């Protein structure tokens, strides 16, 4: 199979699997206990905390392990002060949009959050949540500028960095944000693993209580194997970042050259600053879901948008917010590369796509 859907999930790196295996077999101790195999588990968790912190230039004590990006987003939005007034954008992931009632700011035709409209929103907000990279178009938001605008008004800033981490340099300190979500299965780690990077005083109401794990921010016996896998995946993402980035960038440039040679194809946010592995495009007079299924019959896996909304027939809320015509938006196909994809796979994809379009 040609797998072009790495924004939905990535295959588990074998080195990550090898790091996890002992904690799925003989190192089964509860990390809250005091005997030897329990202490080994506790040490493994703390090593993973350091590995995740290094990846995003945070302090280890700022890392709260979660079950993934969705839980991290929910903890960030619901774990602060009660009845907080929140501002977000119309292009956020459903785990942000559906987590709370927020005032939403629009985006322009290139997918960037409308900073002028944001400035004109005069409500006394407590929290702002803006994704760093859009999961559909790959657009990279001007997050440091947005954070500066919000901090000038005393507003705490959270960012969903799930699609950014491992594909570009992500610096918690330099961005200036107060909270950051990430996910393990987007960086060749295990599903069911993630983290919220947080300044501790901002989480006052944990989603899960009862055991006091994760300094009281996320109770429940830790999934040691998944946390170890996340840590190893973070370490690899940190050390191999530039190699991965260059590989995916070359593939993206080549794919876009081929797409632009096809009739009736439009690349969304083509001239925006985008993450290196993502291309979303539309084909006039086609339906994206139909193209997806026909490509699947050719043994090629792509997406029509967000995997978390793949059961919905409506046009992408992201493309609609960007002003894309509804018919063209319904034709959307997203290609997202990974480290194992090749130029030859792109050629086979373009050949199949061209035949389907014709």
Question: In short, what is this structure?
Answer:
The chain has 358 residues and is α/β, with parallel strands linked by helices. The protein is 38% helix and 13% strand.
Using brief descriptors, characterize the structure shown.
38% helix, Aspartate Aminotransferase, domain 2, 358 residues, Aspartate Aminotransferase, domain 1, three-stranded antiparallel β-sheet, 12 strands, alpha/beta
Model description:
Helix 1 runs antiparallel to helix 8 and helix 2 packs parallel to helix 8. The protein is an alpha/beta fold. It folds into two domains: 125 residues, Aspartate Aminotransferase, domain 1 (Alpha-Beta Complex); 226 residues, Aspartate Aminotransferase, domain 2, CATH 3.40.640.10. It has 13 helices and twelve strands. The mean pLDDT is 95. The longest helix has 21 residues. It has a seven-stranded mixed beta sheet with strand order 2-8-7-6-5-3-4, sandwiched between helices. A three-stranded antiparallel beta sheet has the order 9-10-12. A two-stranded parallel ribbon has the order 1-11. Helices cover 38% and strands 13% of the residues. Strand 5, helix 6 and strand 6 form a beta-alpha-beta unit.
């Amino acid at each position: 199979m040609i797998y072009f859907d790495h924004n939905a999930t990535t295959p588990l790196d074998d080195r990550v699997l090898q790091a996890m295996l002992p904690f799925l077999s003989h190192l089964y101790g509860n990390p809250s206990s005091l005997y030897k195999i329990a202490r080994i588990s506790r040490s493994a968790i703390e090593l993973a905390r350091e590995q995740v912190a290094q990846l995003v230039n945070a302090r280890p004590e700022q890392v709260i392990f979660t079950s993934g990006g969705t839980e991290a987003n929910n903890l960030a939005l619901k774990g602060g002060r009660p009845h907080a007034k929140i501002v977000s954008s119309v292009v956020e992931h459903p785990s942000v949009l559906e987590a709370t009632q927020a005032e939403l700011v629009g985006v322009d035709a290139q997918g960037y959050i409308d900073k002028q409209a944001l400035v004109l929103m005069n409500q006394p907000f407590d929290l702002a949540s803006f994704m760093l990279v859009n999961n559909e178009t790959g657009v990279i938001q001007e997050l440091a500028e947005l954070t500066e605008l919000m901090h000038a008004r005393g507003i705490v800033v959270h960012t969903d960095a799930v699609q950014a981490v491992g594909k570009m340099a992500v610096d918690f300190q330099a961005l200036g944000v107060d909270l950051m979500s990430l996910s393990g299965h987007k960086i060749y780690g295990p599903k069911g693993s993630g983290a919220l990077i947080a300044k501790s005083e901002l989480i006052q109401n944990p989603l899960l209580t009862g055991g006091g794990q994760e300094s009281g921010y996320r109770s429940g016996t830790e999934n040691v194997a998944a946390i170890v896998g996340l840590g190893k995946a973070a370490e690899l993402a940190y050390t191999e970042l530039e190699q991965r980035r260059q590989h995916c960038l070359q593939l993206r440039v080549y794919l876009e050259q081929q797409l632009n040679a096809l009739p009736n194809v439009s690349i969304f946010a083509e001239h925006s600053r985008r993450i290196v592995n993502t291309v979303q495009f539309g084909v006039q007079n086609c339906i994206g879901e139909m193209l997806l299924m026909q490509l699947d019959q050719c043994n090629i896996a792509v997406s029509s948008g967000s995997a978390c909304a793949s059961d919905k027939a409506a046009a992408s809320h992201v493309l609609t917010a960007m002003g894309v015509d509804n018919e063209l938006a319904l034709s959307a196909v997203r290609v997202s590369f990974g480290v194992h994809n090749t130029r030859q796979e792109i050629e086979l994809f373009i050949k199949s796509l061209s035949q389907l379009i014709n």
